[in-house]
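User: You have something folded?
Assistant:
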Amino acid sequence: MAKNSCSNCGMDIPRGSKKCPECGKLQTSRLRMILGAATVLIAALIIVIGAVFIIVKDEPANPAGSTTEITP
């Protein structure tokens, strides 16, 4: 049977095990960890781009250089 090593204690564990029999640490695959990190990174990037878009779009109603005069 193929073996993997525990990400916490390094002990050999059977491939596909959810938990290390020695230390009890839950095992996650490297691919799943990379996909989770990529998802968080993409979500943060979308939030930053959205915030920048809102800040740039939010212009004042009457900019300082406007020559429009309101007379009573």
Notes: Helices lie at 30-57. Strands lie at 3-5, 12-14. The first strand starts at residue 3 and ends at 5. The radius of gyration is 27 Å.
